[in-house]
Amino acid sequence: MHGRWRLFRHDAGQASGPPAWTYVVLFSACLLIGIWSARTFGAVVIWPANGVMLAALLQLHRRQALTVLAWCLVINLVANVVRQDPMPFLWLNAALNLGQVCLAGLIARRVGGAALDLRRPRRLANFALLAVMPAVLLSALFIVTVAASLHAYSVALYLFTVVRYSAMEILGMLIVTPALLLIAKSHRFHDTAPASPGETWGLMLLLTAVTAGVFIQPMAPVIFLIFPPLLLVAFRVSPVWVARAVILVAVIGGFSTGTGHGPVVLTELVPMGGLEGVPSVIHRLNVFYLFLLAVVITALPVSTVMSARRRLVARLEARTLAAQVARRRAEEADAVKTRFLALMSHEMRTPLNSVTGYAEVLARRPSMDPEAREQLNQIQRSGDALLMLVEDVLEISRGDESLDRQPLTLATLLNAAAEPARQAALEKGVDLTVEVRPGAEAPVVGDRRRLRQIVRHLVGNAVKFTERGRVSVVVDRIGEAVILTVTDTGCGLDPARADALFAAFVQGDDSISRCHIGAGIGLTLVQRHTHLMGGTITVDSRPGAGAVFTLALPLPPAEVTMIAGTAATASPVDPEGADRALRVLVVDDHPANREVARLMLSAIGCEVAEAADGDEAVDMARTDAFDLILMDVRMPRVDGLAATRMIRALPGTVADTPILAVTADAMPEDAARCLGAGMNAHLAKPISHLALYAAMETLLAGPAPDTAAAA
After folding, report:
1. HSE-up of 119 (CA within 13 Å, CB side)?
2. What is the pLDDT of residues 446-488, one digit of tens each?
3. Cβ burial 273-291 (10 Å sphere, 16+ → b, else e)
4. Buried-most residue among 99, 254, 420, 542 (CB within 10 A)?
5. Cα 568 vs. chain centroid, distance in angstroms?
6. What pLDDT, on the 0 to 100 scale, is given for residue 511?
7. Which residues contact 65 (CB under 8 A, 6 or more apart)?
8. CA 592 to CA 611: how far, in whole Å?
């Protein structure tokens, strides 16, 4: 991130850090220390004044920064007069200091970003290498060149002076400016340093003690002992405290070196030509500068890297926590949605069971006149259509779920799925044929529910949009894929609108004068189920020329040859002989549902007993013997699942009584929950004579537990 070429801080920036007069006071203190150092040690150990000015320039707004720079320039000129600098250095030093600070500030804003967050390693490196060093080197070359022209410096003295001047200025800026900027912005940069306040002060005291111990003695060159506690400080505390630690080391080391103490004075100086007039303390200061440079490039980068790591870890933890919260919310929303769908399915199917059940029972009475029977059949067909719509709406709301693969026979599935459309085709005079070619006659493994919905919607749409002619359903196997083709001679459709047909609630004709009804979700489910099973669907149609829907589904051959639930007789068999009527216990909390089941069972000569809840069912199963129990799930007092578990726990043969779940809980997970509770099969409401008899036939014939669920 880079800023613009701007000298002063943007006026819209938030004010932070110490007031402007603090920088003036610090600058004055630095000049006083420099004057004292020059008079006491014969040399200025380090020059932090420009670092203070640079921090003020980078931190303050335009008007405040100009005021501080002006005061610093005046104070610098006064200090030069007090120090009795000769002309032209009296004004040239002050001017160069100001120019050096302005150039470094201009570059720093460009390469350091608007926030000047020196906790970031890259920005600290850009600040040191691209802003401070070029500005100081230009200033050093200029001032030393002027001095060399006036005093005839040798080449060795010229290079020595440039190096010493640059090191003194660079170290002053690198030590002071980052520290002041970090302190000024510490309220914004909340660094999560692992050290507590007590540990921080303890580490600073340890560093102070080690540094003082190293520099107070002139006998052993043990300057390396400072780096272990310094690195410990860099790893454990925030960059603000690390900057303070660097200043602490510089102050203690500079004072000790100037007074002739510490390991720096043990350095043996090699005589160099042209530098005979340079005092030994000046030579040794270059060694001290090298040590300070090592301290700066060790402590500050390590501190910034650790700070960046802590920020990334904190950000990762925050995002992980947010992701976990979002996941929990999504799981809760999915659970709520699942409960809603299950509840809606149950509440819609329960009244439909009475409507369609009573209509079917009445229509089967021999005494019913043909006109009334046709009206009842129409009620039943309308109820079936409403049930299909309910199933479709719930299905499209469920989203994509895992496939339930099981062996099945395509011929049986296609005929059953096309059955609801046969009556409509018969009424319109449309010929509806289903052909399973020899290659597709063998059992396959697939999702029975999704395949049934695919065929039902494709065939239903073909019959709905075909007024005359024929609708053909052909299934074949080509290689590993099963090819299902549904062809009609209906009105066809515009190829430009073919893709839009698979969008939810979109129809070929959605005007208020349309000729065909529908919710516009059938083909959406067809495409969703096809893609979920790894297949493809294509449409070939033209207006007035009919339509051809072709599906390619990867349905592998099944290893079994008999598919459960494919053969159902008109009435269930007697497990003990034809001379005794079947005794069936119907358990349901709705009287109308019990009445419908009783009428259907009585029609085939069954003896029917009724229970209003699971508690009654357990008591009756304990005292009476039944050949079959039809068990509802949602009931007061004791539900069907609990009642089934209690019956399975009863002693004797009663625990083996076949139990068929007859419930409005029709979701796949509902069926799995019923089987898990000990029921033998699951039959969703609303029920019909054919579906009930087929389920009873399968159970009483003694199927394997894993195939009973197919009923």
Report:
1. 26
2. 888 888 888 888 888 888 888 888 888 898 888 888 888 988 8
3. eebeebeebbbbbbbbbeb
4. 254
5. 49
6. 42
7. 8, 9, 56, 57
8. 13
